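In this section we walk through a basic example: taking a raw amino acid sequence and producing a predicted 3D structure, encoded as discrete structure tokens. The instruction is simple. Fold the sequence below.
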Amino acid sequence: MKQRQYYLDNACAVLIVNMIFFNHQTTFCEYTNPVISFIGFILSFYMAWFFFKAGMMFKERPIKTVVRNSAKRLLIPYMFFTFMGLVITACQEFFLEANNPLTIGFLKDEFWWLINWSTLFPSMACWFLLSLFVVRVVYVSLPRNRLPPQVIIGLALVLGWLVYIMSVKNELCYPLAVGSHHFQFHVPFYFGNMFHGLAFYALGSWLREKQFAHGVFIVSMMIFLGKFFFPASMDFRANDTGGSNYFLCVIYELSGCVVINNIFKYVANKPIKIFSHVGQNSMVYYLTHYPFMKIICYFFYAPFALMAGGVRYTLLSGILMGFLLFSDFVFRIKVLRKLVGN
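The resulting token sequence is shown next.
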């Protein structure tokens, strides 16, 4: 039996904690400080790493097998947590806004939100599951025996950049006529994160072993340090650079993936009780943190609103941690594990 790569579990735990508590939670709590901002800046490549890691796990399988397995691991959790997002929004409308969510208008609004954003707001993190499903199916469908990995990576990045130009940077709309009906078609921004994700999935597969060569690590570290002199980072989900150069952001993301994998392989490739557990069960934490943050924001935030930012962040993070530990326990139940892709 192949030995488990604990360094990936431990690195995953660090990036999951960073994502939840140093990115999303600070936004919900309307709080930040220089330390949190610095950590977030250093680890801003975390979503690229999740696609990169998935690519490292790639194995040749028939397309039907990949579609079936990916549907079980990704689409079932995507549909379940999207439905939970709908329930949370309905509860908000009913209990906090005194509106009736059992109307065609409400369902229509949520449907168009889903089309425009690929997921509902209380379950926003689900975008990754849908994008990774598309990436896996597209990658295994490509004629990789005729297309070198560099070509796949290059094409995917160019297409991701074009979506950024058309949909994010300039928000271009295009006239579309269907019979007598006329529409303004807008390229969904999340097509960009699918192409971006495909590039990093292919990079993970291609660099699975190559990334640990000393020369690759040294060059990657030098590039990564360049981030402090020429700052640039990207919101992977939104495919938005915030004005930075798109391809510079991609280079920094790749260097971050290689650097963290090398560091953790050589200093943390062993079971580390808490980190390894969180890494091995990362999907539970990933899928549940956003709905729980929305529940806390909707129903628990008021008593903390006037507190100092640091106190509010600490207390609400404690509540969130309690919810996450509870979900960790609940999703160990065998019948529920399929809902988180296990």
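Looking at the output, two observations stand out. The two ends are 19 Å apart (CA to CA). The longest helix spans residues 63-96. In the next section we compare this with other chains.
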